[in-house]
Amino acid sequence: MGQTIWLCSVDIVLFDFGGVLAEEGFANGLREIGKLNGFDPGEFFETGRRLVHETGYVTGSGGEAAYWDALRRKTGIKQDDEFLRNEILSRFIPRPWMLDMARRIKKAGIKIGILSDQTNWLDELNARYAFFREFDVVFNSYHTGQSKRDPAWFIDVASILKLEPGRILFIDDNAGNCARARLSGMKTIHYTDRPSFSDQIAFYCPLIPPG
After folding, report:
1. Is 60 exceeded by the pLDDT of residue 6?
2. How far apart are CA 176 and CA 165, in angstroms?
3. Is the pLDDT of residue 172 over 50?
4. pTM of the prediction?
5. Can you name the CATH fold of 2-23+94-204?
6. I want to staple 62 with a disulfide (CB 3.0 to 4.6 A). Which of 57, 83, 128, 181 is the partner?
7. How high is the mean pLDDT of the chain?
8. What is the spatial order of strands in the sheet that 111-116 belongs to?
């Protein structure tokens, strides 16, 4: 236990998936779909992001087919499900350097986990890239039924882990998710780029070799 405190000021580090452990496939894929169909990419992404919550797909109460049907009805796009899902999944490319950082943290005696607002796509991506085995715990909104949009979810995560929120470090590329995590008492890193991330992780885990 003394070594854990010495190496890192938290007991577990929770990583977002898209935008942190991997390239942001959902946002980038939706923007490309919008561009292909003559829409403003940013506006199309916001529509797709809103519908993934409104249809319940992100929290497992709705399915993928219903999500694509809703997006087609809302926007008038014509591509089939297989084309659309490939535009998303092909862009979720794991970041080897970030996975290496997670391994170094775990080797130092700190638990690591995933905390992601994802659909069943996360399971499919794991089948493709086999990254779940690296982590001690995986929280996926599709299976938990709770989203990072809900501030209470961060409190619930701490309770499930049987940790004080202040002993948890949460890393996400979404500033709003980080703000809600901080409200629960968690420590956070808002991921924007590799150099600034390396500086910030060194603050919490100063003796972990930099990535």
Report:
1. no
2. 17
3. yes
4. 0.94
5. Rossmann fold (3.40.50)
6. 57
7. 94
8. 137-140, 111-116, 12-15, 168-172, 187-190
Alpha-carbon distance 174 to 188, whole Å? 11
Q: At 207, is the pLDDT very low, low, confident or very high (cuts 50, 70, 90)?
A: confident
**46, 151, 22: which is closest to 96 by C-alpha?**
22
Six-digit token string for 107: 């080797």
Domains of the chain by residue range: 2-23+94-204, 25-89
Paired strand residues for 15: 114, 171
Other residues' Cβ atoms within 10 Å of the Cβ of residue 78: 8
Side chain identity at 123, as an amino acid letter?
Answer: D
Spacing of C-alpha 142 from chain mean position: 12
189: phi then psi, degrees, rounded to nearest 5: -130, 120
